[in-house]
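Section 3.1: Structural characterization of target chains.
Under the original work plan, the team committed to producing a structural model for every single-chain target entering the pipeline before any wet-lab resources were allocated. The record below documents one such target. The sequence was received from the expression subgroup and is listed exactly as submitted; it comprises 216 residues.
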Amino acid sequence: MLPAKFAVAVGDDGKMIGRLQGTILEKQPPTILLDVQGVGYELEASMSTFYHLPECGESIVLHTHLVVREDAQLLYAFYSLSERLMFRNLIKISGVGPKLALTILSGMSAEDFTRCILEEDSKTLTKLPGVGKKTAERLVIELKDRLQKDDAVKLPGVAGTAGARIERQANPVNDAVSALISLGYKAQQASQMVRDLDVEDKTTEEIIRAALQGGL
């Protein structure tokens, strides 16, 4: 039996589990552990969503998307409906899986991504890890018309000013490097991105944000 605050919606494409309300137990980018009435759900989220998370022990509502594979069931979480909609648009593109979609939404806001698509700025998109020239051009071609008609264009991005801070980790620099690797950066590249930053008294979230902004 599903918890009372566990919303399920099954669509024509097989999507289900559309919303979770619970208490944050742990958060280590890109993973969140959410307690929903005693059941701990492991969720993966972009840094855009992480910037909005409250402290551990506090309650939050997250919009979700379930990906079912032969070897796993992966649940992705989003702070806003607009970001989830963008994620769903992205994974419909050939060659773009959930991991790359999260990387894109971590590297730039939904607003900035929409701008790149509408202005056909594939060059900026290629600065994201895992997005080569052909993939960037495919994104522009396949998403431009869709985004012009989509409500996501009218909604604000979710990677603006953070409304809450991620707690200080035992080693925020190492945690930031690990998160960047999870997002698709090579280990040497991730280390270099962090090494060039002023990380004194910075949280993991702040280091990751600065590294991603520097990468663009």
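The longest strand covers residues 19-28.
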